[in-house]
Structures are given as structure tokens and as C-alpha cells.
Amino acid sequence: MAGMIAVIAMLGWLSGLAVNLLADSLPHSRRWAGPHCPGCTAPRPPAAWSSLLAIPLGAGRCAYCGRRRGLRWPAVELIGIAGFGLLYARDARPATLLPALLVGFTFLLITIIDLEHRLIPNVIVLPAAVVLGAIGILDPGRGAVKVLTGGLAGAGSFYLLYLMGGVFARAMARAHGRPIDEVAFGFGDVTLAGLIGLIVGWPAVVLALLIGILAAGVFSLGHVLVSLLRRSYSAFTPIPYGPFLVLGASLVYYGGRALFQSILLP
Ligand SMILES: [Zn+2]
């Protein structure tokens, strides 16, 4: 038992390290790069690869530029360990655990990159769509029709929102006499909505995206109120939508049928 816990913790920790590495390299180079300092891009020595180990060992600062490592790196390693452990405890059967781990890995990576760069790279979404779509199609509980309808519904509905956002931005630009380059939805949100549709399938995608839009709306409202109180209000401060869509999708995917039914069939 203790051995199993150690193996799970180790795998979770390695997953966290992998998420950190990909989040550091993909937005810049579109491909995997070795552990490096985000400040000066100097490669990190193996002793500094893990922030959980490096910070207590006094290697939290880059040896070249002195940049201190942010909280994201150790936090993601801890989330990897906790997430792996929770998913293993929830259902250890490989047919459930492996997709659940892949979905968690993808969602965590997308959330971090969207928060840090306002970007949802295709280099993550497209391979994830192929792999997780195939897993859903092969799953007897979902099948091709549910999975593909979910993907089309997710991407299609967000593509319409994306087009409407463009029309709105052009109208506002005309009204204000200056271009407004910040749009509500980016195209990355369209691809993410499609990926979420493939993952949770039809009709769960409707609930997943509605929760995401609602959560983003509540957050924006809070943000506007706080800005008004601080007298720093700007109508065009964009918020990254990805983390909210991931939140809705996670609730539906991990909450499963129980959550779906408790909301639709009270
Ligand atoms: Zn550095």
C-alpha cells in the first residue's frame, strides 16, 4: 500500500514537471524545450528542474540572471501529485483513470498558458482533440455520434459567438473612432470549446459550456464592480475565457452523470 502511494505520488509529480515544462516552452517555440529560465532562457541544471526541490535547496533563483521562480512552478508540481492521487482514489480502473489523467493534464496546461499568455495554442488543442476524441469514440458508453456531435456543437456555438464578438468590436470601433483590438472571444476559445465537446460529448457539452460562460460572467461582473470602486474601469479589459471553460468542463467531466442529472432533472 505504501509502495503504491509512493508510485502514485511520483507519477503525479512527474506529470506536474511535464506540465511546467510544456507551459514554459510551447507558447514560445511551439515545441518542447528542456528546463530553462523563463527570464534569460538559460538551461536549468538538473538540481533545479523541480521547484519543490530547488526552492528549499536554495536553487530557487536562476544562476545566470538571478530571477526568482514564481509560485506557479511548485504549485503545479503539488497539483500534479494531488490530482493524480485523487483520480486514482476515485476510480483506479485503467479505462477510467487514463482518460481522466489525460484530460486533467490537458486542462491544467491550457489553463496555465491562457492565464499567462492569453493564448490557447493549437499545438496543444489539436493533438488532445485527436487522442481524447478517439478515446471517447472507443468508449462504449459514449461512441462516435455523441463525441462528434459534442465537438461540433462546442466549436460551432463558440464560432458564432466569435463572429458576433467581431461584429461588436467593429461597431464599437466605429462608435469610438479608434480600433479596438481586444475581443471577447479569441479563436483559441472556439477550438477549446470544440475540444470540450469531444471530451464530455453531447448533450453534456451544453451544460459544460453554459457553466463556463456563467462563471466567466460572474467573474467579469465582480471585476467591473471592483474596478468601478477603484475608479479604474475600462470597458475593454479582456479576461481569459479558457480557465472558466475548463472549470465548467471539469465539473461536468469529473462530476459526471450525477451532477448532470441533479441540474437537469431536479
Ligand atoms: Zn535566468
Q: Which terms summarize this structure?
A:
about 270 residues, mainly alpha, binds zinc ion
Summarize the structure.
This protein is an all-alpha fold. Helices cover about 70% and strands about 0% of the residues. It has helices spanning about 1-30, 50-55, 70-90, 95-115, 120-140, 145-175, 185-200, 205-230, 240-265.
Description of the molecule:
With 266 residues, the chain is mainly α. The chain folds into 2 domains: 1-90, no CATH class; 121-266, no CATH class. Helix content is 71%, strand content 0%. It is built from 9 helices and no strands. The protein has helices at residues 2-29, 51-54, 72-90, 94-117, 122-138, 143-176, 187-200, 204-229, 242-264. Helix 7 crosses helix 8 (204-229). It is globular. Bound molecules: zinc ion (ZN). Zinc ion is lined by residues 37, 39-40, 42, 62, 64-65, 67.
Q: Give the overall silhouette.
A: globular
Enumerate the spans where pLDDT stays under 50 for 5 or more consecutive residues: none
Kindly report how far apart the N and C termini lie: 40 Å
Give a list of the ligands. zinc ion
- Total number of helices: 9
Strand content: under 5%
Number of strands: 0
Largest sheet: none
Number of domains: 2
- The chain-level mean pLDDT equals 87
H/E element order? HHHHHHHHH
Rg over alpha carbons: 20 Å
- The helical percent reads over 70%
Provide the structure class. Answer: mainly alpha
